[in-house]
Write a structure and sequence with these properties.
11 strands, mainly beta, four-stranded antiparallel beta sheet, 118 residues, single chain
């Protein structure tokens, strides 16, 4: 099983950008599809984006398509989420996850808080 640690969250104004990182332990990182999810206060966790083990396939929630970009560096065991044109409704705890492909993610990080002020 892979262990995941997110970083890069913070407070940003609407229209701004943030890049989240998720560092994975273990030598099998490149065999996992990776995903980003988020959970806002009082709401269920929702899917944000996913990337295949090679990086050749990506998939986004409609709410972030065109604003967020998921990428990975298998040499660094890291997956990224570049978030542009942020909106207050993007405020949430963001989690990265590892698995076979959406929606089958079995390993989760502890999350990083993203707050977008209006």
């Amino acid at each position: 099983q892979v262990q995941l640690v997110e970083s890069g969250g913070g407070l940003v104004q609407a229209g701004g950008s943030l890049r989240l990182s998720c560092a994975a332990s273990g030598r099998t990182f490149s065999s996992y599809a990776m995903g980003w999810f988020r959970q806002a206060p009082g709401k269920e966790r929702e899917f944000v984006a996913a990337i295949s083990w090679s990086g050749g396939n990506t998939y986004y929630a409609d709410s972030v398509k065109g604003r967020f970009t998921i990428s990975r560096d298998n040499a660094k065991n890291t997956v990224y989420l570049q978030m542009n044109s942020l909106k207050p409704e993007d405020t949430a705890v963001y989690y990265c996850a590892a698995g076979t492909w959406y929606p089958d993610f079995g390993s989760w990080g502890q999350g990083t808080q993203v707050t977008v002020s209006s």
